[in-house]
Amino acid sequence: MERLNRFLARSGVASRRAADELIASGSVRVNGEVPPPSGILIDPDRDEVTVDGRAVKPLTRHRYLMLNKPLGVITTAKDEGSRTTVLDSVGNEGAAGHRLFPVGRLDADTTGLLVLTDDGDLAFRLTHPRYKVAKEYLAVVAGSPGERDMETLRRGVDLEDGKTAPAEVEVVGFDGSVGAGRTEVRMVIREGRHRQVRRMLQAVGHHVQSLRRTGFGPLKLGRLKVGGWRVLSEGEIEALRRAVRIEPR
Q1: Domain boundary pick from 19, 36, 55
Q2: Whole domain around residue 50: which residue ranges?
């Protein structure tokens, strides 16, 4: 027996969280019946599961992409306002017939590394706080953060939704020319709160002018051009699985 949301995630329909939303919306049927919003246990070998009338079958092989998300692109599968989404960025060639979804989120005004996949189990673990997957960012901020600011960020910052976990922080560049006064800061966090990096830096008095994610778990953005995407290697996929304690295949 298997929980319905996990079955939907394993079948590439959506991440486990999004599968819960699908179940609650009434789009899912099990043997023709609407399951309770809390979900149920099913027998994948005997029960018939449909989403909007389409039969769901487990995938035999998943697809994993890395995208260098451009500025202004929305991290969602579909946008009602017809704005450009990350799925538009990879197109049909990137999806290759798979029903991809983004792993976690990047704000429209944040660029950089985003993973897209139809592996719901892996996506669920990569975004769950329990696994503390590292996310590396390069931020350009106004002014020049001092050592006291750095130490505050390293210890954790008090925000309106609670104190953050300690972060890795270092200054990697400074533009002191007339009228500039900008500093490039590398920050690594292991949480996923809304606009967390921006809010942490703002809390110590430094407005973020630009933000780019350069690392996600064992993955690095490298030289992938803005708007470009590539398929993850088998080694990278296994490294992601090890990072969230999934047994090697």
Answers
A1: 55
A2: 2-55
Q: Is residue 161 part of a domain?
A: yes
Say yes or no: 36 and 24 in one domain: yes
What is the per-residue pLDDT across 86-115, written as a single tens digit (0 to 9) for each?
999 999 999 998 889 999 999 999 999 999
User: Which CATH number characterizes residue 161's domain?
Assistant: 3.30.70.1560
Q: Which residues are catalytic?
A: 107
Q: Which of 96, 94, 98 is nearest to 120 (CA)?
A: 98
User: Rounded CA gap, 16 and 103, in Å?
Assistant: 11
Q: What are the C-alpha distances in Å from 190 to residues 96, 112, 168, 196, 217? A: 31, 17, 10, 11, 9
* pLDDT tier, 178 (very low <50, low <70, confident <90, very high otherwise): low
Q: Report DSSP state, residue 133.
A: -
Burial 49-88 (b: 16+ CB within 10 A, else e): bebeeeebeebeebbbbbbbbbeebbbeeeeeeeeebbbe
Residues in the chain: 249
